[in-house]
Design a protein that fits this description.
By secondary structure, the chain is an alpha+beta fold. It has helices at 3-26, 29-44, 54-79, 100-108, 112-118, 123-134, 139-145, 150-167, 174-189, 193-199, 222-235, 280-284; strands at 91-92, 200-208, 218-220, 238-244, 247-254, 257-267, 270-277. A seven-stranded mixed beta sheet has the order 1-4-5-6-7-2-3.
């Protein structure tokens, strides 16, 4: 095996890990794939003779690529303050727990709720938190990526951790999540606002990346969200319960095509947040194999 073949073999062996890092950094599946592909282009053009830990080197390059992408995205968002960014969901069939491959995917996934919180961090905070807290990378390896000392990188991760712990809700067991989401879906389908009020937290937050008909992209409060759900369900006859990032969510259909994906955050027997992807261009890039 020559040097190029060895490098390609090692890269393919690490591709899944690099994609997982990039997804947590970017919250976007297509952008994660782009980051991994850009990593390969940089790897293929580099001198690898002095690389002792090739897997760590791959991760470092991917992280730097993602950091640049986050900084560019942040600059665009600052120019468009009305944008609501909802991370890409990983959607799987309800029977995922029966499939070893899907089991691994669900076990390795992070909740959409956590990804939403990560969107509030600075790019450097997000990188430090993801690499150290989610992938156990030492701070002396994180530090050069963000151009900081190890002590400064530790502070970045600490600030991020405080934000995450203060904003992330601990979800109940998946069986309880499913019960609440099914109750929400039944009430919305039946147009039963009173039943919806029993499963919606009074301060529920709904985010939609592509709200139709100039509707607000963010709704707060059970009454607004409940009435909106009833109107939406009346206009979309078919929906389907699915697994989303290890929890539960709902696909909505327009004809035979998926028109929206809603992920649910559940706590204390109520829905406390809904994050909806309804941008047709984003939906077209998602994988619904085995679902539709």
């Amino acid at each position: 095996m020559d040097g190029n073949d060895f490098l390609l073999t090692e890269f393919e062996a690490n591709r899944g890990h690099l994609r997982a890092v990039a997804y947590r950094m970017l919250g976007s599946l297509p952008e994660a794939e782009d980051a991994v592909q850009e990593t390969w282009l940089k790897v293929a053009a580099a001198d690898t003779d002095d690389i002792a830990n090739i897997g760590g080197w791959f991760t470092t390059i991917t992280s730097r690529v993602c950091l640049n992408m986050l900084r560019s995205r942040r600059a665009r968002h600052e120019e468009s303050l009305d944008i609501v960014h909802v991370p890409d969901p990983i959607v799987a069939p309800l029977n995922s727990a029966d499939d070893p491959e899907d089991q691994a995917l669900l076990a390795d996934s992070v909740s959409v709720a956590l990804l939403v919180v990560l969107e509030t961090l600075t790019p450097s905070e997000r990188l430090a938190f993801v690499l150290h807290d989610l992938f156990a990378m030492p701070f002396d390896e994180v530090a050069p990526i963000v151009d900081k000392t190890p002590a400064a990188a530790r502070k970045l991760a600490s600030r991020a951790r405080t934000r995450v712990q203060g904003a992330t809700i601990q979800s109940p067991r998946v069986s309880e999540q499913r019960r609440v989401v099914e109750a929400f879906l039944a009430a919305a389908r039946g147009g039963d606002l009173e039943a919806l009020m029993t499963v919606l937290d009074p301060n529920i937050v709904l985010r939609n990346d592509h709200a139709p008909d100039k509707a607000p992209m963010e709704l707060v409060g059970a009454d607004q969200v409940g009435r909106g759900a009833i109107i939406y369900r009346a206009a979309n006859a078919r929906s389907q319960l699915v697994r989303v990032n290890g929890g539960y969510g709902v696909l909505s259909f327009s004809g035979d095509d998926v028109s929206a994906i809603a992920s649910f955050t559940v706590a204390n027997n109520r829905v406390v947040a809904m994050n909806i992807v309804s941008d047709p261009e984003r939906i077209a890039k998602l994988d619904f194999t085995g679902i539709v």
